[in-house]
Amino acid sequence: MARKPKVRKVRVDFRQNRQVRRRSDDWTRRYRADQEHLEDAERRESVRARGELSRKRTILVDADGVPLVDEAQWQRGTVTRVHGLICTVCDQEGRVWRCTVRRVLRTLLIKSRSPVTVGDRVWFADVTQPGDVDLVGVIERVEERSSKLSRRDQRRREHTIVANADQLLAVVSVAQPRLRPHLVDRYIVAALKGNLRPVLCFNKMDLLTELGDRTEEEERLPGQSVMDVIAEFRELGYQCVATSAVTGQGVEELREALRDHMTVLAGQSGVGKSSLLNALQPGLNLKTRSVSDETEKGRHTTTWAELLRLDFGGFVVDTPGIRAFDLWNVAPGELEAYFVEFVPYVPRCRFGDCTHRNEEGCAVRAAVENGEISARRYYSYLKMFEEV
């Protein structure tokens, strides 16, 4: 006999504009309007709720804190796009719904900037009315996420970009804008933290010989060329694909890397994510824009994340370009685990809580001095350690 799920009660806040009581009378305004006619106040008794208890309500949730509703009346789907308060959901029959999020659910998940995001598997209720042009629904439940790509926003909240993908394709350009190896390291850490497999795409290879084989960190580490950085990541075991949407270089290899996977694309504005997708699947016709010659910064073309089906198999999430990618919820003590070359040396450190910065007997620093660990990667670790 199946055991009934545990049910418990929780108190949730009303929305903010319901917490302020409206004044029932305005005696001052009425007095000034007609001073000759004063009206005795009606004698009556009233009972008003007082304190914090009046600003909350009780709902039933399961063991995971998800509101309980009759699932027999719900439908299951996947969020393919989020634009403002409207979520586009594709159900199991391929129909497209315009959905909002139930206020109670949004209240429970409000600590995150994105309580519902692209890739979420959701249950929703049909609230379509006669005369509606579109199918309309209300999201009642969000299933537990198997993976996610998150970053910290300007308000120091979690911004979940995509959920339930199985790999991250970090797209960077080798020129216009120049390669930023430290940003690639950030993407790798964010992917591993979110249970995603990182795949690295080095785009615009056609510009490499034309504009020079330079990286943004060349001043700190002279001699570190673009090809050196690519070789470095390959030696660490990460799949690296060198591509050019103009010449077609690496497009077939990239197509194989994406086949039968749900992949999220991440990268700065102007690195060529939309151009690559157009080359991978002709007919998408995604908008593209040029990079500024003066600042080497891209111009935003993709304004929201969207789940796209690939004709050759799999799905890809095209995301807006970002210029900063701050790590979310990575503790300083766990950062070493996301630098795979550090792992064999960590047990050899003299102190169990070694941060690998200035402690005596640090095996990681010794490996850097001996050339066994890349100095560039070590400097990237130090910079990330200070930031997290």
Helix/strand/pairing category: alpha/beta
- Number-wise, the strands total 15
Low-pLDDT runs: 292-300
Largest beta sheet: what is the strand line-up? Answer: 12-11-10-13-15-14
Shape: globular
Distance between the termini: 48 Å
Total helical elements = 9
Give average pLDDT, whole number. 82
Strand content: 15-25%
Q: What is Rg?
A: 27 Å
Which percent bin holds the helix content? 10-25%
Q: How would you spell out the order of helices and strands?
A: EHEEEEHEEEEEHEHHEHEHEEHH
Description of the molecule:
- Helices cover 20% and strands 23% of the residues.
- The chain has helices at residues 27-33, 103-108, 181-193, 208-211, 226-235, 251-258, 273-280, 363-369, 375-387; strands spanning 8-13, 56-61, 74-83, 86-91, 96-101, 121-126, 135-142, 148-152, 158-163, 167-173, 197-203, 239-242, 262-266, 306-309, 315-318.
- The strands form four sheets. The chain has a six-stranded mixed β-sheet with strand order 12-11-10-13-15-14, sandwiched between helices.
- The chain is globular.
- With 388 residues, the chain is of the alpha/beta class.
- The longest helix has 13 residues, at 181-193.
